Amino acid sequence: MLLDPDRTVYRAYGLERSKTKVWHPAVFLTYFRLLLKGRKLRPVQGDPYQLGGDFLIDRQNVVRLARPSDNPADRPTIEEILRALGAA
Q1: Residue 2 has pLDDT above 80, yes or no
Q2: Domain total for the chain?
Q3: pLDDT digits (tens, 9 = 90+) for 78-87
Q4: Does residue 21 contact residue 74 with C-beta atoms inside 8 Å?
Q5: Would you call 77 exposed, middle or buried from its count of C-beta atoms within 10 A (0-12, 13-18, 19+)?
Q6: pLDDT tens digit string along 37-69?
Q7: pLDDT tens track for 9-27
Q8: How far apart are CA 1 and CA 68, in angstroms?
Q9: Which DSSP symbol is given to 63?
Q10: Which residues contact 74 (CB under 8 A, 6 or more apart)?
Q11: Beta-carbon neighbour count of residue 28 at 10 Å?
């Protein structure tokens, strides 16, 4: 886990803020599906326009998975993560 309050690493990995991508239709579909399953939506915390990403870095500091999110619902599949772990 990495804490990056100044967003130095965030910027170095090419992550971005976007008001338009946050309102992507896939986001609404994801939230709708969660609500149908009985999940409660939590209030927004932090910067709502900060897009995330998923990164796996091995013990030798080799980036095995670099996947900036195109929108908040854009996440790697379990298969992608396992493939990246298998390559480590």
Answers
A1: no
A2: 1
A3: 999 999 988 7
A4: no
A5: exposed
A6: 999 988 888 888 999 899 999 889 999 999 999
A7: 999 999 999 998 888 888 8
A8: 16
A9: E
A10: 26
A11: 11
Residue 1 falls within a domain, yes or no?
no
Within a domain: residue 3? Answer: no
What is d(CA 24, CA 73) in angstroms, rounded to the nearest whole number? 8
**What are residue 82's DSSP bridge partners?**
none
Dihedrals φ, ψ of 65, to 5°? -145, 125
- Cα–chain center distance at 41: 17
User: Is 2 inside any structural domain?
Assistant: no
Q: What tokens were used for 77?
A: 């599949």
> How does residue 88 score in pLDDT terms, banded at 50, 70 and 90?
low
46 in a domain, yes or no?
Answer: yes
Which domain, by its residues, includes 66?
8-87
